[in-house]
C-alpha cells in the first residue's frame, strides 16, 4: 500500500476512533456475526431480487449466491478487526465494481442500512435481557459502536472509491475532450484550407492525411469527395458544352419548325376557307337535288295518273269498237230487210201490173214501198260506210292510244329510273354535305391546333434560346474551375465504395 493510502487509512481509523480495543471488540462479535449474517444476507438478497432497479445487475440466482459468499468473506474479515492493506484492497475492489456497473451509492447505503438494522436487532436479541448494571450496558454499547464504526468505515471506503472512480473517469473524459478538441482544431484548420481552395474553384488541392486517427478517415473522405467533384464537374463541363451545341441545333430546328408551322397554318386556313365555300355549295346542291327528287316524284305520280287515263281510254275505244261491230251487224240486218222489202215491192208491182186497173193502187203502194226500201238500203249503206269509217278511226285511235299508253309506260319507267337516280344523287349530296361539314369542322380544329402548335413552337424556340444563354453562362462559370478533364481522375476504390454504398442504400 502506498504512503498516501496508508495515511488515508490511518486518518479514517483515527477519526472513527477505531483502535485496538475496537478491533478486539469486533473480534469478540465474530461468532455472533457469523450466526446472524447468513439469515441477514438471505433477507437482503431477497429484497434485491424483488427490486427491479438493482436485480438487473445480477445474472440469476447463482450470481447472487456468489455475491453472498463474497459478502460473508468480507464481513468475516471486518469482524476480525484487521483493517490492513488487504482490507483496503478488497473494499476498493468492491467500490470500483460498483462504479463500473453503475450502481449508485443510494442503493448500497440502503443495503448497509438494512444490514445494520438486522445485525443490531440480532445482537440485542442475543444479549437481551442482561443483568442490571452499568458494566453490561457499557459493554453492549461498545459492541454495537464497534459494529457501526466498522460499517461506516466500510461504507466510507466504498463511497470514496466510487467517487474517486467517478472523478478519475471525469478527468479521463476531460483529458480526452481536450485532446479531441485539439485534434479537432488541427483537423478543422486543414479542412478550412481545403474548403478555401474549393471556394476559389481549385479542385486540384487535397487535404493532408497526416492527422489524428479520429480525423484520418475524414481527410480521406474529403479527398475522395474532391476527386469525385473534380470528375463530376469535368463531366458536367463536357456535358454543358455538348448541351450548348445541342441547344444551338435545337434553336435552329425550332426556328425552322416555327416557319414551317406558320406556313402550314396559313395553308390550313386557306383550305378551311375553301372547304367552307365548298360545303355551302354542296349543301345547296343537296337542297336542289332534294327538290328535284320531289319534282320527279310528282311527275312520276302524274305520269302514272295519265297512264291510268290512257288505259281507260283504250278500254272505252274497245267498247266503242265493239258497239260499232254490233251496229254494223244490225245495219246488215236492216240492209237485208230493205233488200227483201225491195224484192217484195218489185214482185208486188209485177202482180199489180198483171192485175190491170185493179192493181194500180197497189202498184202505187208497192212503188212507194220499193222507194222506201231503196232509201232504207241507201241509208243503211251510208250508215254502214260511216260506221266502217268510224270503226277504222276508232281502231286507229285505239292504236294511237295504245302507243300513247306504251309511251307513257316507258316514260313512267324512265321517270322511275330518273327518280331513283335523283334520290341517290340527293342522298349522296346530303351525305357529301354532312361529310364536308365534318371535314370542315376537322379542318377548323386542325387550324386551331396548328395555331396552338405554332404558338408552342414559338415558346419552345424562345425557351431554347433562353436555355442556350443559361448553358453559356454555366460553361463560363465552369471554365473558372480548376479541374482536370477526364473521368479517369476518380480512384478505383472510390467507384467501388460508391457502388457499395448505393447497394447498401
TrEMBL record:
| UniProt feature coiled coil, ranges | none
Please give the residue ranges the record annotates as the region Disordered. 482-505
Q: Where is the Methyl-accepting transducer domain?
A: 239-468
Origin organism is Rhizobium terricola
- Cellular component annotations (GO), alphabetically ordered: membrane
The entry's localization annotation reads: Membrane
Recorded superkingdom: Bacteria
Family as reported in the entry's similarity comment: Belongs to the methyl-accepting chemotaxis (MCP) protein family.
Annotated protein name in UniProt = Globin-coupled sensor protein
Top-level taxonomy: Bacteria, Pseudomonadati, Pseudomonadota, Alphaproteobacteria, Hyphomicrobiales
